[in-house]
Write a structure and sequence with these properties.
Translation Initiation Factor IF3; Rossmann fold; Anticodon-bd_dom_sf (chains A, B); ligase (chains A, B); BirA Bifunctional Protein, domain 2; Proline--tRNA ligase (chains A, B); five-stranded mixed sheet; 3 domains; proline-tRNA ligase activity (chains A, B); homodimer
Chain lengths: 512, 512
């Protein structure tokens, strides 16, 4: 994992303390910070810049699928929420509730004005099925109105007791797609389309390999008939659920009265789906691609793909260095990469060049270009690729290149960095999934000594109390069921948990 | 205003009932609708598409000014909010307050769980000076950290008693810029930069002429030292405040402890600013550009700039019509306009072509192109410009053009529509500002019989009780002070309200 004898830029390595390392990447890379408001973070410019990139690229995929963006209310009246029993059970324990609409000084202390108490409390949306269902019930009349497909980019709130930046915060940012269909087949097709969109987005844009599959019934979204997820493996071997897609059956349609007249003139309930991804993905990117010097940001989602650091010496030569850098920035800005103009920053901040370099290393800018007087004289640039920071001797692997060569190859280099990050993560994922475990003792042993990774086992897909028993036993071992991979090999043996004939394969692992 | 003897697409004209007409544009144009949640609207795809365009173009201007996007918490602890006395006084009466974090069924009824009562209530942000100030106090140490300039795109909540879609809703979407500076001069410069950015954005992107000026002291943002606004004139002659920029002095910096060490090693409080624009601008666009057939959307912010409507007859010819339309769409998509690819939609929805045409008229698509079998045969298209829907004879002013000519001129035509909408609104604004009123009786008379428009008068810029008296008198006449235009002529006479020597000119009008 780490090269010996290198003093890394972070105060702690992955190997020493993965959790502390994660926090260090976030704080040293200026990604986010605690806000002083319980469970809520401040997303700083570099972290928010990554989110803007994710938004832009995911939004393009959502629009390409013909889904239209809308905006629905932040507040959900309790009565909307109560209509779907499983749904409300699943969320009631972690919701922010608005009860008053005014403050007043009472005994010199500002507090909710009792005279402003709401007749019906409002829930701050933890997810929007209920309020979007109400709108759909107005919009859907006939089979001609279906499928109805909408998405919103929004903040949601779930009152989490233990929070971790990006991974689990009380407030987070996400997109939620909501669709209504004439029948189960069409709704299930949309559920799988969204799942595949997320899988491909994770692999392509985030360079983050994932396993797409169905969640066991106990892990379904509250009120869903089926929940699918993409699961990514972090460098400590734990699983992160990075996106979900739900087939909701007709339960939410019945609760919100989303009905349509079919071609035969009969009233039918629509079948609905929902699917979402969030700022949690940024936590995944950090834990998949980060190293002991900070984040390594995949070029497709890096706010700046190339950062130019002029090496100034407070002497007359500086002007020529800056002019050379400006010219370089302009030429790079005209380069196209991943079908967009290359994003280049000339960093003019008045701090020392070495500090500047290390701040961009920690942030994970894919390419850092340093330019000093000698480079200007020789028509060169000094190029540092963030994906291979050190050479085998443990020295910074800066490469001196003719400026024009670097410009000509910049797009290729960025594509290569994107591909390298993906390939590295993909081999790690594949190397750390065991598929040879056939009994519970071996399953426990597979995780002994905090051995990283997942185990894919055959099971009989138990349900109800039988599944509860499996999960109870796994919990005792600090293990969880992740999903049943869509592309797993067929089951041929017996269920590792129940001894019955196995019907499919399921992934077991520790998780975030 | 209206052409006689035309049956317009909306059920009510501007002249007959401007307020009802406004609601009709919104509902018939599928822009937004009531949500069933008090004071909150659902923004539908066409309305949200306009907001996405506004976001994209405004965000580009904000980034070009070097301001970085961040994200700050939705919730503000009461203690943060209380620190700035004027600020809390200004907002305390209209805030949503979160008091519990869990629901529980009590006597069979779901309600806030008393055991989940928060020790400190949380306010849903009505604006973010306080929570961003807390972050700035962590980020600012030295004069080298200044100016610090951030922006966020977010939802905010102000508990409005009387709401109107887009213009005044309990929840709305906006951007809020927040900056900290070494001194008053630099902060005031930023305040004016943001104001000028808004003025130019309104004129250019929204084609909406505005008057930029300072708000009278009673109309300042709570806690501000100076507030500036852009004011647009709606077609009923009322004023809409469409953006504001505030110089906040050191009050917020003192409350949040935003201090820096200056070059001499002394601790100083920063001078801060804030500035914002919101979904309210969409209400302005409707009331400035709409006509009796619906919205006329300026091409720069239209989600689709050209909509192609194939005229199908359920016969074999349809295939050739659709192929011709697809080819047209492809060619238009390759056209650049306003430095972006032209946004073109081929509307394949299975509804009658005439209904389709009118739905796009009501939405305000700048150019609607109809294509039938005869057009295909002749290599033509039938073009309808939304800014001039009817000819002098009161017939739809569709123009048959050779397809290639239309494509070659499409960018120019869109630019001409943008310019025409601006020019129309600009002449209306100029024609409806009177500057010849010098006494209160004439001021009242100027508004008699609901005569539309504003009056710019000379005044002595009274303060405190004297200003209260002026505003009290104006309120009795249903009038308000809008702003003191930056580019007004100098005052030469006496104050229309107090008879003192006038120092500047101020705009008086009815308002939203």
């Amino acid at each position: 994992m780490s090269i010996p004898n290198i003093k890394h830029a972070l105060p702690v390595t992955r190997q020493k303390d993965f959790a502390a390392w994660y926090q260090a990447v976030i704080s040293e890379g200026d990604l986010a910070e605690e806000s002083g408001v319980r469970g809520c973070m401040v997303i700083r410019p570099w972290g928010y810049g990554i989110w803007e990139r994710i938004q832009k690229l995911m939004d393009a995929r959502i629009k390409a699928a013909g889904v239209e963006n809308c905006y629905f209310p932040l507040f959900i009246p309790l009565s909307f929420f109560e209509k779907e029993a499983d749904h409300v059970d699943g969320f009631a324990k972690e919701m922010a509730v608005v009860t008053h609409h005014r403050l007043k000084a009472i005994d010199g202390k500002l507090q909710p004005d009792p005279d402003s108490k709401l007749e019906e409390p409002l829930v701050v949306r933890p997810t929007s099925e209920t309020v979007i269902g109400q709108a759909m019930s107005r919009w859907v009349q006939s089979w001609r109105d279906l499928p109805l497909t909408v998405n919103q980019w929004a903040n949601v709130v779930r009152w989490e007791m233990r929070t971790r930046m990006f991974l689990r915060t009380s407030e987070f940012l996400w997109q939620e797609g909501h669709t209504a269909h004439v029948d189960e087949a069409d709704a299930r097709k949309e559920t799988m389309r969204a799942l595949e969109m997320y899988r491909d987005f994770a692999e392509t844009e985030l360079a983050m390999p994932v396993i797409a599959g169905e969640k066991p019934e106990n892990e379904r979204f509250p009120g869903a008939v089926a929940t699918y997820s993409i699961e990514a493996m972090m460098q400590d071997g734990k699983a992160l659920q990075a996106g979900t897609s739900h087939y909701l059956g007709t339960g939410f349609a019945e609760a919100a009265n989303i009905r349509y007249q079919d071609a035969e003139g009969q009233q039918q309930f629509a079948h609905t789906t929902s699917w979402g991804t969030s700022t949690r993905m940024i936590g995944g990117v950090i834990m998949v691609h980060g190293d002991d010097d900070g984040l390594r940001c995949p070029p497709m989602i890096a706010p700046w793909q190339v950062v130019i650091v002029p090496m100034l010496r407070d002497n007359p030569e500086d002007e020529a260095v800056l002019a050379y850098c400006a010219e370089l920035a302009k030429a790079l800005g005209d380069v196209d990469v991943f079908r967009e103009p290359l994003r280049v920053l000339l960093d003019r901040k008045p701090i020392k060049a070495a500090n500047k370099r290390w701040s961009w290393v920690k942030k994970g800018a894919p390419i850092i270009v340093e330019v000093g007087g000698r480079d200007v004289a020789g028509g060169n640039v000094s190029v540092l690729r963030r994906d291979r920071l050190y050479n085998d001797a443990g020295k910074l692997a800066s490469e001196i290149l003719p400026k024009d060569d670097f410009i000509a190859r910049a797009a290729e280099t960025l594509k290569d960095i994107q591909a390298t990050l993906h390939a590295d993560a993909k081999s790690r994922l594949e190397a750390n999934i065991r598929r040879d475990v056939t009994d519970k003792a071996a399953l426990v042993a597979a995780f002994e000594g905090d051995k990283p990774g997942w185990v894919e086992v055959e099971w009989a897909r138990p349900s109800g109390a039988a599944l509860d028993a499996v999960e109870e036993w796994l919990k005792g071992e600090k293990l969880t069921l992740r999903n049943t991979p869509l592309d797993a090999a067929p089951a041929t043996g017996t269920c590792i948990f129940t001894g019955e004939t196995a019907v499919e394969r399921v992934i077991v692992g520790r998780s975030y």
